[in-house]
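Sequence only, no structure available. Ideas?
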Amino acid sequence: MNSLKRIFLSLKGQIDHVADEFENHEALASAALQDLQAIASKTRLHLHRVSKMSEQYQQQLAKQQEQVYLWSERAIKVRAEDEQKALQCVKRLRVAQQQVNLLEQQYQQSTAQEEKVRDDLSAISEQLWVLKNKKEILAARQNRVGIQREHQGDSMQDVQSVFERWEGAVVSTEYEIPDATVDTDNFANEFEQEEDQLALKMMLDELTETSQTPATKN
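Reply:
I predicted one. Tokens follow.
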């Protein structure tokens, strides 16, 4: 696991270093992830082989345990009739027991190795997930920085200057166009003055007429 740990630290260092470099960040990160994926594939293949080996040991162990039971039963069964034959059965029994002991050790070692490789694969998979996410985050941040640089560059200033020139042209045109509302207001004022004069004259006529009417006596 120490070798895998060194690989993880090395790959993680490469990904972290990407943030400080002015190269093709995404390409470097992809290459590092491909290396780690290759390690994961090899580890997965090794796990498959070790698992098969454990299954074989387990099957062989079960067969030898059956042999132990079988030769034990045979020795007991024939002892009364033929002791020499019973001793041969015991001899086979002893060989079967030795095979059982050996296979048990091999099976335990194989399952222990299988568990270790499984842990290694789990650690690699976790690192892959972490580094893939980090790659996506760095790529998004890099794109955002690029967009910000474009907005803060000459192109943004050019766009702003275009709108400023457009606004200036519109304002200049507005001052050049005569205000039609002035004439309209003057025309309306003439009517209002005539109407006011007519109202005043009517009031004057009414006052005059009232003054000339004799007062009614009680």
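The chain has a mean pLDDT of 80.
Hope that gets you unstuck.
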